[in-house]
Amino acid sequence: MAVITGVGELGPVxxxxxxxxxxxxxxxxxxxxxxxxARTLPVVRVSGRFGVNLLRAxxxxxxxxFASKLPQREKFADARYRIHDGVPLLAGTLGWLTCDxxxxxxxxxxxxxxxxxxxMGGPADGDPLVWYRGDYRGIT
Length: 140
What we know:
By secondary structure, the protein is α+β, with helices and mostly antiparallel strands. It is built from 3 helices and 11 strands, in the order ββββαβααββββββ.
């Protein structure tokens, strides 16, 4: 699981996604799927940049907050983060990436965003958070 973040006129925005994968090694590209109704999508389109925060197995509560329809300000109220390379990066994650939005494509009720990786950090120790059989789990 990952939280996709960006910064708009009103401050930081973020959403949980489980549709994230590597696309190309040269250049280094990834794809992320944004629900058409995601409030993060228009901010990423305007700014042209987003962060990818790879969640640890013990960050299910954080994932739930960013998957919710809470106002963006409330999503970030209890989340520790820093702005790096123009995007919010959440503290304590397994790893992070900053990306330029290279392109978008329609994908049913989602928009597929292609990101060109600018920087990355991690990995920290720990297991990744996954969604399996209707609940959050680690892989161990």
